[in-house]
Design brief:
- With 380 residues, the chain is mostly helical.
- Helices cover 60% and strands 4% of the residues.
- Strand 1 (178-185) and strand 2 (188-195) form a beta hairpin.
- Helix 6 (111-126) crosses helix 12 (260-290) and helix 12 packs across helix 15.
- Mean pLDDT is 82; it is low at 363-372 and 375-380.
Length: 380
């Protein structure tokens, strides 16, 4: 896009140098070294480009030296214009975003089947020698206590030991041989600690290793691990947040809750596929146009816009499925299932996160910049 602009800037700078040499030779009463090529008095940008390309061919100017062509102030203005310039989407861009959206829709609509398939494929690993060794190494650790107040299908959310966002607390409990958590009763919260019955660990390094082995063995089980940070919700003063955390992870049946596997890994694969497909498409398209896969600022902005649109589309589709599931249960008379927190597992949180952190959100400008930078006209 900016190659012709760069050629024009370089050519105009060289022609200005020729004019200065001509003036200097005239003042010194000498014969000028070069003769200026005359162009029409008024030219459109396209006419100027054609004329300059003709001059470059005659003079054999093949290199573009913007360092000599522009002052520091002009270079800053040129770079600002490059970053503001927005390329219009082509038909193929729209088709590509639509195709990626279809892939995202299929992954979202059949996410439960995909997750079930992943669970079935992971079952042979549970009985493998490696995982069996991990389970054996993680036995009798305080973070896996299943006694009163800490047991049940969702026991991994009832203490910090299985929360990936709190590894230091988990290691500390393993070192001290004590599980700690909060039990909520009618009269309020009660801090509970149970110790004296777990394996002794002598060092932080050993505790970290035991924790890693235990979590690796747990993450491939049907219940997997809770979403990082969910333990903070389970310890919240708000009963609604506590119930949300517990039931979202527990699910309507074992393995159907909101976990690391179906809340981050599986939807994260959709985000990864989206990134790979769109980035590959943009770089191939630029390579076909310019002979290089390197993106200039406008092409980078175009890529970011396509990624933002695709992630937004997939995120909207996933939220649509959540709404559809809740509506279907509601109109079938199953009101408990309609409001069950485990429906959040269908929301593609990684896609929403990618959308929120897209560079395209910070690169938009309130007004459309001019098609060509004023620098060109200022150096004619």
């Amino acid at each position: 896009m900016s190659e012709d602009v760069e050629r024009n800037l370089d050519t105009q700078s060289r022609r200005l140098d020729d004019i200065e040499d001509l003036i200097r030779a005239t003042l010194d009463d000498q014969e000028p070294a070069v003769q200026l090529t005359r162009g029409s008095h008024r030219q459109t940008y396209d006419e100027l480009t054609t004329f300059n390309d003709h001059v470059r061919t005659q003079r054999e100017w093949t290199e573009i030296d913007l360092d000599s062509a522009l002052t520091e102030q002009q270079r800053q203005a040129w770079e600002l214009w490059q970053h503001k310039h927005r390329l219009a989407w082509s038909t193929s861009d729209l088709v590509t975003v639509g195709a990626v959206g279809v892939i995202g829709m299929l992954c979202t609509w059949f996410d439960a089947s995909i997750d079930r398939t992943i669970r079935d494929r992971l079952k042979p690993l549970i009985s493998s020698d490696i995982v069996s060794g991990w389970e054996k190494a993680g036995k009798q650790l305080p973070i896996d206590y299943m006694g009163p107040d800490f047991g049940g299908r969702a026991h991994r959310i009832k203490s910090a030991g299985h929360d990936l966002a709190r590894p230091i607390e988990a290691i500390r409990q393993i070192m001290e041989g004590e599980i700690r958590g909060t039990v909520w009763q009618a009269d309020g919260a009660t801090r509970v600690a149970v110790g004296g019955k777990f394996r002794q660990v002598d060092s932080w390094a050993e505790a970290a290793l035991r924790l890693a082995q235990h979590l690796l063995a747990d993450v491939i089980t049907p219940m997997s691990l809770p979403i990082p940070g969910m333990f903070f919700l389970y310890e919240s003063d708000s009963e609604a947040l506590r119930d949300f955390a517990l039931h979202a992870y527990s699910g309507l049946e074992a393995g159907s809750g909101w976990s690391v596997r179906n809340g981050i890994v599986t939807p994260g694969m959709t985000v990864l596929v989206t990134e790979i497909l769109l980035r590959t498409y943009v770089h191939l398209d630029v390579y076909q146009q310019t002979g290089t896969a390197r993106l200039d600022p406008p092409q980078t902005r175009r890529r970011n816009e396509l990624l933002l649109a695709s992630h937004s589309l997939i995120s909207a589709i996933s939220m649509g499925k959540v709404a559809a599931q809740m509506t279907a249960h509601y109109y079938s008379g199953n009101y408990v299932r309609a409001v069950h927190p485990s429906h959040i597992r269908h929301a593609n949180i990684p896609a929403s996160s990618a959308q929120a952190h897209s560079p395209a959100l910070s690169s938009t400008t309130p007004t459309e910049p001019p098609k060509y930078p004023p620098l060109v006209h200022g150096t004619i």
